[in-house]
Structure formats: structure tokens, C-alpha cells
Write a structure and sequence with these properties.
This protein is an alpha+beta fold. It has 2 domains: 1-144, Arc Repressor Mutant, subunit A (Orthogonal Bundle), CATH 1.10.10; 149-226, SH3 type barrels. Helix content is 40%, strand content 17%. The protein is built from 8 helices and 8 strands. It has helices at residues 10-23, 31-38, 42-54, 70-94, 102-108, 114-123, 170-179, 216-219; strands at 58-61, 65-68, 149-150, 159-165, 186-192, 200-204, 211-214, 222-226. A 6-stranded antiparallel sheet has the order 3-8-4-5-6-7. It has a two-stranded antiparallel ribbon with strand order 1-2. Helix 1 packs across helix 4 (70-94) and helix 4 crosses helix 5. The longest helix is centred in the middle third of the chain and has 25 residues, at 70-94.
């Protein structure tokens, strides 16, 4: 992944990472969505979008929003790789727990050089996923597809495996760990109530396992894959 000259600012890197997250499934990112993710004012987003567009890192889609160019995607994946390798290193080598690495990695991802991150990855034997189950981009800019369903999308009777969870809320991560809803956990969806405010009942470990009711909003942040063929 060749660098952009001049080097990107911390703010520009944050924008690229945010826009990548909003558009990785083929969508575009609106100004309001970007502002919400980054907790900034829409006027600030407009100014940064112009600068990133001038740098050929993103492009406008008429009446829909923006999306990253090929160059923008490469730069976003570099930031993601730094972030996720650092999270993994903090957990595996420095004793951090999965609920307290996100903010630390947010700070370090802008300071760590690509060389340091590659040494970290080498020391970890080049992990493919971070502690929350998210794929780590390779140094050549490739990343595993993440078009997973969420637990909130699945019909009753389906056996699943937790693939990944969103990692921004430490309290939520502690709750998930306490209940056993961590990456790799198998579960059976027992019931999925029609009321969108209702909970989803699952059996941890598959049929006959411990029954647990998962809040539907939380279920929308738990990514799952079918256990068929596993």
C-alpha cells in the first residue's frame, strides 16, 4: 500500500476510517452519518470532505453522499490494520482486556509507524482477526469480506456462530463476555419476537444450552455466521 504525500493528518485518517466503515458494504456515506460517527458538526465534515476529494481520496455520488476512491480505500485499510494489530498486541502481549483496548488503539494508531506495526504483527505470527473478531487487513491491502448478518436478522431455529462484535462500548463488551456472547461462541436462535423492541432468545452452545434473552438493539451489533459446514 503506497503512502500518500504529504502524510495524512490524524483527522484525515479518522475520516477515512469512518467513511470506510459506513461504506464497506457498498453504501455511500452522508454528511450527517459521518458527523454522527465522528461526533463533529456537519460543517466540519463538509470542509474535510472537500480536502479529501481534492486529494483524490474520495468522490461524490450525486444525491447520495460520498465514497472512497481506490486510493482512499487503501489508506483507510492502512489505518484499520494499525488499529487492529495494536488491539491484538495489547491483548495478547500486554495483558489488556478486550473491553479496554479500543480507545488505547485509537490513540496509538496515529503515532505508530507502519514498520512498528509490522514488527507487532510478526511477533503475533500475523493474526487474521482482532480480539473482537474483526478481520485485520493484510499489509498488501486485502481484507476478508464482512457482509455478515447480525443476530437481529436471523429467524428462529437457526444455529449460528458469533463472528464479531462491535468494539466501541467497554460496558457492552464486558456484558457480552459475562454472558458468553464472544467470537466463536455457538448458539441457537430459539425465538425472535416480532416486536422490534423485544428481545431475542438464544441457547448458548447450541440446542439444550443456557437460554439467554438478548436485547434487539444489542443483537444488531453482534455479527454471526451459519454453522453449516463447520
Amino acid at each position: 500500500m503506497s503512502p500518500v504525500h504529504p502524510p495524512l493528518s490524524r483527522s484525515a485518517e479518522d475520516y477515512l476510517k469512518a467513511i470506510y466503515g459506513l461504506t464497506e458494504r457498498g453504501d455511500t456515506a452522508s454528511t450527517s452519518a459521518i458527523a454522527e460517527v465522528l461526533a463533529v458538526q456537519p460543517a466540519s465534515v463538509t470542509g474535510m470532505i472537500k480536502r479529501l476529494a481534492d486529494a483524490k481520496l474520495l468522490e461524490h455520488v450525486p444525491y447520495r453522499g460520498v465514497r472512497l476512491t481506490e486510493l482512499g480505500v487503501r489508506e483507510a485499510l492502512k489505518v484499520l490494520r494499525r488499529h487492529r494489530v495494536i488491539e491484538t498486541y495489547l491483548c495478547e502481549r500486554l495483558g489488556y482486556t478486550w473491553d479496554d483496548v479500543h480507545e488505547e488503539a485509537e490513540r496509538l494508531e496515529h503515532a505508530a509507524s507502519d514498520r512498528l506495526v509490522e514488527h507487532m504483527a510478526d511477533a503475533l505470527h500475523f493474526p487474521s482477526h482482532d480480539p473482537h473478531g474483526a478481520p485485520i487487513p493484510t499489509s498488501s491491502g486485502e481484507i476478508e469480506a464482512t457482509d455478515f448478518l447480525t443476530l437481529a436478522d436471523v429467524a428462529p431455529g437457526v444455529e449460528l456462530r458469533v463472528r464479531a462484535v462491535q468494539d466501541e462500548d467497554p460496558g457492552e463488551l464486558r456484558s457480552l463476555e459475562a454472558t458468553g456472547l464472544t467470537p466463536g461462541t455457538r448458539l441457537l436462535v430459539e425465538s425472535s419476537q416480532g416486536d422490534p423492541r423485544g428481545g431475542i432468545v438464544v441457547q448458548l452452545g447450541g440446542p439444550g444450552g443456557t437460554r439467554l434473552t438478548v436485547d434487539r438493539e444489542l443483537a444488531g451489533r453482534i455479527f454471526v455466521v451459519s454453522t453449516d459446514g463447520l
